[in-house]
Specification:
The structure is a single chain. By secondary structure, the chain is an all-alpha fold. It has one domain. Helix content is 74%, strand content 0%. The radius of gyration is 24 Å and the shape is elongated.
Amino acid sequence: MTRSRAFHRFHRWTAKMRRRHLRAALPEPREGELALLTPGADLRRLAWERDQLAELRDRDDVIRVA
């Protein structure tokens, strides 16, 4: 492969990676995808909070019974 061909292939590859990362960061759904109302990090945080609250309620029930 000549130097200029390798140079252009590398820059096409980096542009492709840059576009892929930018698309992944966009909140809008792409064609054919289901729309998430909240980003994944927010969903994980909410699930963690619900889990923690459930554990606290269970502990309170055990303390009240004892």
